[in-house]
Amino acid sequence: xxxxxxxxxxxxxxxxxxxxxxxxxxxxxxxxxxxxxxxxxxxxxxxxxxxxxxxxxxxxxxxxxxxxxxxxxxxxxxxxxxxxxxxxxxxxxxxxxxxxxxxxxxxxxxxxxxxxxxxxxxxxxxxxxxxxxxxxxxxxxx
Length: 142
Known about the structure:
This protein has 142 residues and is α+β, with helices and mostly antiparallel strands. It is 25% helix and 42% strand. It has helices spanning 17-35, 38-44, 61-69; strands spanning 50-52, 58-60, 73-89, 101-115, 118-133, 136-141. The chain has a four-stranded antiparallel beta sheet with strand order 3-4-5-6. Strands 1-2 form a two-stranded antiparallel ribbon. The radius of gyration is 15 Å and the shape is globular. The mean pLDDT is 87.
């Protein structure tokens, strides 16, 4: 029987339904990182995004995902703490096309990671930006 993965995320605010959607999209990305699911990560992330992961380098998406595939970097757990979500809509809510919006998610990530053979736990303040277009959330950068 597979063990249930416990997520220990905490929030600095109560989330609205749209804010919850944005958080869930980002949480899904963190889970995909832990599972090294590069196919899912390609779907969840903008192809032009630059990544700075636990190794601290600023990389193109394919280079970053290549490190996951080779297991140069592997995440075994990522908890998100003090999460806040701020939404900005392209148009006024209720107007045509108002489905499109941006979310900025901030907080602290607690990462259990192995980087080039070294293991450690890291605290990292993060700012994540996501965009919702046609009902689909995509990570667009920090």
